[in-house]
Design goal:
By secondary structure, the protein is mainly alpha-helical. The chain has 5 helices and no strands.
Length: 91
């Protein structure tokens, strides 16, 4: 699934949580966040911290796969995303 907004990601998390029959409190305990944070995130909280989002995704067995959408960069050759990340890590 392409995730283009925090609301998209929140919908994925909520759907997965419900598929696993977990309450917000149970997911919060697994991820080490508060139930209130889960509630706010699932509501599309635009300022949710990425590190907490990653903990929640991990608790649900979900992973993030970042790809370069070639359609958003017309006229530019595609670059290997792993190479780009490595270039920025070494700076």
């Amino acid at each position: 699934m392409k995730v283009r907004s925090i609301r998209d990601l929140a919908a994925v998390v909520r759907g997965r949580r419900m598929d696993l029959r977990l309450s917000q409190a149970e997911l919060a305990a697994r991820a080490g966040v508060s139930r209130k944070w889960i509630y706010q995130f699932e509501g599309g909280k635009p300022t949710a911290e990425l590190r907490l989002i990653l903990r929640v995704l991990d608790a649900l067995g979900l992973a993030v796969d970042v790809t370069c959408d070639q359609q958003t960069t017309p006229g530019r050759p595609a670059r290997d995303l792993d190479v780009v990340i490595e270039e920025h890590r070494t700076r």
